[in-house]
Recover the amino acids of this structure.
């Protein structure tokens, strides 16, 4: 038994977790008023705008890639399906954790399951997210079954995998778009650069784009961290699909702005206009220019850069919808309190750490053999005391 | 029959007795400092706003087709046949979507409490159900706030405007806004400076238009995805049977089965 080596990233993660633990204590002892900068005119902050809206978007690779492999039978993408499903399952689980902070009465999070209001978009999202998290758990299950050598469970899972994937794709289509529909109810509050009847379409398309970008991003990260070979030809194919997705999104976005007469809003310089340019610059223009260039599109670094830009750009887009675009009519600027940032930071950090642990102890990458140390009995059940190296975080 | 409230700003003297009666009715504290607050809050479910010497009353408008009722995922908010929009705190999980959705920003939250509730005027639902008028209407000394049958109040508002068209803005606020409300406002000056900015159409249609398509998307999507799978897997089977796939590919598929 030796102490884990202290590194820069590990120190950062530990500091984030300490601040997150203290913020959690404050949140559940003092209430929302004391620990957030939310108010009556501005009831939704980054716990919804980032943790939920962006979290669900970044977990969208799961349904995109399972559809590609299982429904479209493009077998060559199978090697990257496990890390993608892991990211999705982790993403949705963390979204549920984030919701527990944001809800005024978190112990009633199950209420929508029995107290129905089918006219509510939130009701529909609640049901879809619950069901899809269950589907993801079942899609992820074989990885655990394999590790535990449960042959029978594996066979059962294999028999139902196609209906499972179809259900997952349908549920994702519904709730990814419905996160945009949530804002259809505020035509007089949301800035015209973002309020459009096409919100559900944009949220669905951006989920697909970001799902692909996240797959490229995490493949690159894991290949660096675990020293395994990058599936470059696969990622190049994904990059081409991503380019088409971005082009479709960009054309539709500007058609919509034009037809609604919202392009004139861009003539007034200001806070909203600036952040609109950040959004389309990072998420659309730069990655489209990069990906149009064949040399960049077919290089690992170029793809990685484009993917990171897409993720950042669409995070800006969702924060613009949920925060920037809502501030003007609320007549205030919302800046999250440190407790809100600490909780969100801890949730992101938890995502990285759990991914690293899962990648270390579970057969996520089919071709790579498990390191001997990981199979030692007890190591998986007591990861806190085991010499967890978090190589993933170390090298990033 | 559906009830309503008619507030005539030209009769209001700004005495704030409606605020005081409302606080008593809802067991809320009321003192000078609360009286001086112009904004609605968890402690103040109605308020008199003053702009340029003119008064305006703000409260939950108890809409005919309320956005808050349509967005609530647990049906904690309900529209009563008598008019009031009520809140059942035992169902509420605190998502605050009602606050985001309310076009009048009339829903407030108990931010300071550990287990907060949504607070808003519920048009004295208990009193109205018992055949009484709302506390604010009962307390109003000038008749600026009047309780009655919704249809009668609309007729009376039209009548007042018709009798003194110079005295009133020709606009019954709440007659058409968001598809109609249970609270009507009359004024001699425009409503916008008092913070009213609402579309005419009922908001719930905006989301329901999309939600109503979901069953179609599920059934159509299910058949489509199932069909694509059937075609692509059949294609792979045929290719395999015809021996077009090499040995290595077969191994890939066998390995894939363990997924």
């Amino acid at each position: 038994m030796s102490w884990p080596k202290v590194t820069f990233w590990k120190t950062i993660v530990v500091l984030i977790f300490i601040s997150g633990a203290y913020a959690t204590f404050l949140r559940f002892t003092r209430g929302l008023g004391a620990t957030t900068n939310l108010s009556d005119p501005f009831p939704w902050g980054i716990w919804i705008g980032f943790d939920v809206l962006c979290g669900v978007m970044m977990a969208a690779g799961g349904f995109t890639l399972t559809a590609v492999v299982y429904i479209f039978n493009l077998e060559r993408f199978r090697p990257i399906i496990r890390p993608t499903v892991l990211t999705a399952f982790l993403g949705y689980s963390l979204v549920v954790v984030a919701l527990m902070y944001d809800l005024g009465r978190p112990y009633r999070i199950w209420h929508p399951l029995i107290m129905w209001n089918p006219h509510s978009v939130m009701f529909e999202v609640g049901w879809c997210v619950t069901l899809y998290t269950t589907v993801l758990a079942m899609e992820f299950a074989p990885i655990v079954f394999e590790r535990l050598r449960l042959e029978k469970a594996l066979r059962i899972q294999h028999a139902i995998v196609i209906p499972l994937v179809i259900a997952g794709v349908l549920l994702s289509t519904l709730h990814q778009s419905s996160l945009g529909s949530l804002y259809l109810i505020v035509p007089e509050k949301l800035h015209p650069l973002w309020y459009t009847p096409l919100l559900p379409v944009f949220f669905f398309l951006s989920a697909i784009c970001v799902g692909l970008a996240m797959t490229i991003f995490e493949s690159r990260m894991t290949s660096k961290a675990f020293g395994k070979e990058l599936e470059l030809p696969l990622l190049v194919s994904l990059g081409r699909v991503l380019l088409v997705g971005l082009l479709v999104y960009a054309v539709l976005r500007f058609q919509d702005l034009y037809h609604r007469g919202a392009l004139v809003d861009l003539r007034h310089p200001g806070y909203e206009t600036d952040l609109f340019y950040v959004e389309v610059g990072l998420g659309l223009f730069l990655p489209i220019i990069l990906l149009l260039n064949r040399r960049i599109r077919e290089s690992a670094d170029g793809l990685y850069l484009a993917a990171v830009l897409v993720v950042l750009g669409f995070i800006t887009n969702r924060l613009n919808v949920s925060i920037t675009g809502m501030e003007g009519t609320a007549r205030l600027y919302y800046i999250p309190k440190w407790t809100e940032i600490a909780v969100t930071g801890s949730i992101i950090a938890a995502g990285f750490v759990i991914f690293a642990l899962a990648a270390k102890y579970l057969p996520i990458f089919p071709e790579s053999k498990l390191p001997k140390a990981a199979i030692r009995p007890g190591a998986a059940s007591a990861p806190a005391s085991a010499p967890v190296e978090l190589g993933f975080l170390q090298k990033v | 029959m559906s009830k309503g409230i008619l507030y005539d700003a030209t009769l209001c003297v700004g005495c704030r007795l409606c605020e005081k009666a409302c606080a008593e009715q809802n067991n809320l504290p009321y003192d000078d400092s609360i009286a001086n607050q112009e904004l609605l809050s968890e402690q103040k479910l109605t308020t008199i706003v003053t702009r340029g010497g003119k008064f305006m009353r703000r409260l939950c408008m108890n809409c005919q087709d309320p956005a808050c009722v349509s967005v609530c995922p647990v049906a904690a908010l309900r529209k009563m046949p008598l008019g009031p929009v009520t809140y059942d705190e035992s169902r509420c999980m605190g998502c605050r979507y009602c606050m985001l959705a309310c076009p009048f920003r009339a829903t407030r939250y108990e931010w300071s409490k550990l287990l907060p509730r949504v607070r808003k005027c519920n048009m004295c639902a208990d009193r109205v159900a018992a055949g009484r008028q709302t506390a604010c209407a009962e307390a109003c000394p000038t008749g600026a706030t009047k309780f009655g049958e919704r249809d009668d109040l609309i007729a009376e508002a039209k009548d007042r405007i018709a009798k003194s068209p110079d005295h009133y803005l020709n606009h019954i606020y709440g007659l058409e806004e968001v598809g109609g409300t249970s609270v009507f406002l009359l004024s001699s000056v425009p409503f916008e400076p008092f913070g009213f900015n609402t579309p005419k159409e009922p908001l719930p249609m905006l989301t329901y238009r999309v939600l109503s398509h979901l069953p179609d998307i599920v059934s159509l999507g299910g058949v489509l995805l199932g069909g694509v799978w059937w075609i692509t897997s059949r294609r792979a089977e045929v290719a395999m049977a015809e021996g077009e796939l090499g040995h290595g590919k077969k191994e890939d598929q066998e390995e894939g089965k363990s997924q």
In short: The mean pLDDT of chain A is 89.
